[in-house]
Each structure stands twice: as structure tokens, then as C-alpha cells.
Design brief:
6 strands, 4-stranded antiparallel β-sheet, disordered N terminus, alpha+beta, two-stranded antiparallel ribbon
């Protein structure tokens, strides 16, 4: 009996596929896969999150739209390009960065869409929170590096000892950096790093924090990377007012990590954008952001209340007559 049932289901599925008139997506010697087939498969393919692939894709599309609906006029192409250029500068420029993201299977246009959504979300958060001076001051202190140093990294201990001797004899630290250092991370900064506790290898940090400003290590500092010669400099940290805009961005980014806040924000914007999902099988896409629609209209609720009041009045009259 089970075999007959399975055969009937399989035949039914093939029949439905054969009757589909939607555009073809792919094909094999066994048959064709059309848009309708793919759509149905995506609606039913469950992910570990508990949502289906279809719900996940639809959720992203709807979230894009609800932010676009309320804040689309506040994010220009110029803003997106400026943000992209700022990111790309860290990798050597737009061309170099485009090559990097393409090597990772990404597309520059798709990446710009992600930047747009990020900027839309930032605009929405700005519109819903008031960042205080106290928050900015706290962020300023939290991000303040513990030390600024200039250092030279070499592989040979004797060379490190010779560099220390040259410095003691008055050699320029920056010149010795360009001549000897093997640290790729600081070659373009004359060996200068600003960092906080926990960001460097322990041996480096311990030596750096033990120095006074202007003081240089008198012995090479060994780590897994080689031998370091370290000089502690005056802390390089711009005044708060010069960083205010960046600090506000850091605080705003913090709100994006607050799930309760973000759920409330998206829920509000979804209601404002009048989000409706017609396909019952995809209702879960926005379940966490939308209140389920009542099956009864407010007018129907009022009619029911009126009927109930009439029934109650009738019962009271009967009791009085008795």
C-alpha cells in the first residue's frame, strides 16, 4: 500500500511540474526545473534557524523595503560612494578592494546595496534615539588606546642589540625602522602603533607598558614574531570633538547589536510600510516583527459587544419580571 501511495504522489508531482508554464530555471535529462518549482522548493526547505529559505529571503527583501520606505530619501548615491571609498582606502583603493571582494565571490554592486541598507539603518536609529554627551564621553574613554609606541622587529637577536646601541648613540628611530623592520603592519607608519591592553602579544605589551614616554627598551624583547626594539611615545589620540562624528557612529552601531531594540524598530517601520504577506506558507518571514492580523474586523467586534449587551439586558428584564 505504501508503494502505491508513493507512486501516486510522485506521479502527481511530475504532472504538476509538466503543467507548469513559468520560465525555465534549469534542466537535466530527467526534466526541467521552472520558477514555480524553485519557488515551492524554497518555501519548504527548512534551515537551522527554523525558517525556510523562502522566508529568509523574503524577510531580507521586506526589511530592505521598510527601511527604504521611511528613510530612502536620506541616503544618496554620493553617501554610498563616500562610504565605499572610506572602506576601500584601508585596502589600497577602489580597484584593489573590488578585486578582493570579487575574489571572494562578491559583486561590487551587491556590496553597495549592503552599504545602502547599513546607512538606512543608521538614519533610522538616529531618528529614534538621542545620543547624549555622557554616552559620547564614555565611548571616547572606552576607545582610548593604552599606549602609542614606535618599534622595530627583526629576526636576529644580535641585530636587535646593535639597533639598541645605535639608538643610544643618537640614531634616528624612523631611519632604523625603514632600514631593518620586518613588521609589515607598521612599515608605512614608521613603526608606530597605538593599542590597548589585549591587542598585542603579551611580551610586547608587558615591555611597552613598563616604559615611560620617550624611553626605549634596553634589551631586545623576544616574542613568537622575532625580536622587538620598542620606544614608548606620547599617546596619540585626537581630542573628543575631532572624533565626535565617529563616536556617534560607534554608538549607533551598538544599537544594531541590541536585538530587542532592532525588533521594535523593524516592527514599527513594518507597520508604517503596511507590510502584508499574501502567501500563507511564507507568513513566518516577518513573524517576529508583525502582530498577527485579527480574523474579525473592529466593526465585527463592536457588533458582537452590542449583541452581548442586548442579551445581558434581556436576561436582567426576565429576572425582574420573575
Amino acid at each position: 500500500m505504501k508503494k502505491i501511495l508513493f507512486g501516486a504522489l510522485a506521479s502527481s508531482a511530475l504532472l504538476l511540474s509538466a503543467c507548469s508554464t513559468s520560465d525555465e530555471v534549469a534542466s537535466t535529462e530527467a526534466g526541467r526545473i521552472r520558477e514555480d518549482d524553485l519557488y515551492e522548493a524554497m518555501k519548504n526547505e527548512q534551515l537551522q534557524s527554523g525558517m525556510t529559505i523562502g522566508e529568509t529571503v523574503l524577510q531580507k527583501m521586506l526589511i530592505d523595503q521598510v527601511f527604504e520606505h521611511s528613510y530612502g530619501d536620506q541616503v544618496s548615491d554620493e553617501k554610498i560612494d563616500a562610504e565605499l571609498e572610506e572602506i576601500a582606502e584601508q585596502y589600497g583603493g577602489i580597484e584593489e578592494y573590488e578585486a578582493i571582494i570579487e575574489a571572494q565571490g562578491m559583486d561590487l554592486d551587491a556590496f553597495k546595496k549592503d552599504i545602502r541598507l547599513t546607512l538606512l539603518i543608521q538614519e533610522a536609529i538616529k531618528d529614534h534615539v538621542e545620543i547624549t554627551d555622557e554616552e559620547i564621553e564614555e565611548a571616547y574613554e572606552d576607545l582610548k588606546p593604552g599606549a602609542t609606541v614606535q618599534h622595530i622587529l627583526v629576526e636576529d637577536e644580535e641585530l636587535a642589540e646593535d639597533i639598541i646601541k645605535q639608538l643610544e648613540d643618537g640614531a634616528e628611530f624612523s631611519e632604523l625602522v625603514s632600514e631593518h623592520t620586518t613588521d609589515p603592519g607598521s612599515m608605512d607608519t614608521e613603526g608606530i602603533y597605538s593599542f590597548s591592553e589585549g591587542e598585542m602579544v603579551p611580551e610586547f605589551e608587558e615591555a611597552a607598558f613598563s616604559l615611560e614616554e620617550g624611553e626605549t627598551t634596553t634589551e631586545p624583547v623576544e616574542s613568537d614574531h622575532g625580536y622587538h626594539v620598542i620606544r614608548r611615545l606620547e599617546l596619540d589620540y585626537a581630542p573628543l570633538e575631532e572624533q565626535r562624528e565617529d563616536l556617534e557612529t560607534v554608538i549607533i552601531d551598538g544599537y544594531t547589536q541590541d536585538q530587542e531594540f532592532m525588533v521594535g524598530l523593524v516592527s514599527e517601520l513594518a507597520e508604517k510600510a503596511n507590510v502584508r504577506i499574501a502567501d500563507e506558507e511564507l507568513k513566518g518571514a516577518m513573524a517576529m516583527y508583525m502582530t498577527p492580523q485579527s480574523e474579525e474586523t473592529p466593526e465585527e467586534d463592536e457588533d458582537l459587544d452590542t449583541i452581548q449587551e442586548e442579551v445581558d439586558d434581556s436576561e436582567e428584564d426576565e429576572e425582574t419580571e420573575q
